[in-house]
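Late entry, written up from scratch paper. The run itself happened at the end of the previous shift, but nothing got recorded in the book at the time, so transcribing now.
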Amino acid sequence: MPQYWYNVNTRQVEQDAQSGWKELIGPYNTREEAEQAPAKVHERNEDWEAKDDD
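Output as recorded:
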């Protein structure tokens, strides 16, 4: 079963990690999940910042 990765430099989804690990977010089970990676990262960062303010 393939894995999908989001490349933060190219902003493209890769199947089976074709770039260097420092450029990738993942792995994800589906292309759709990988496409949502930037939104998830942003959401998690917002949550962490809110916790830091407490």
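The chain has a mean pLDDT of 93.
(Scratch paper discarded after transcription.)
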